[in-house]
Amino acid sequence: MEFDLWWLLVLPLMFALGWLASRVDLRQVGKERALRRDAPQAYYRGLNHLLNEQQDKAIDAFIEAMTADPDTVDLHFALGNLFRRRGEYERAVRVHQNLLSRADLPREARERAQLALAQDFFKAGLLDRAETAYEDLRRSAYASQALTSLLQISERTQDWHKAIARAAELELRATGTYQRQIAQYWCELAAQHQAAGREAEAQQALDAALQASPQGVRPRMLRAQWAQQRGDLALALQSLESIDLVQPEFLALAAVQIAQLRQQLGQVQEGLAWLRQRLEQTPAIDLLDAVLLLDPDPASRARCAQGYLQSHRSLLALKRVLEHPAPGAVVPEVATAMQGAVDNALRSRQRYRCAACGFEARQYFWHCPGCQGWETYPPRRLEELSLLGS
Question: Quick one: which of 134, 140, 164, 277 could link to 111 by a disulfide (CB 3.0–4.6 Å)?
Answer without folding.
Answer: 140
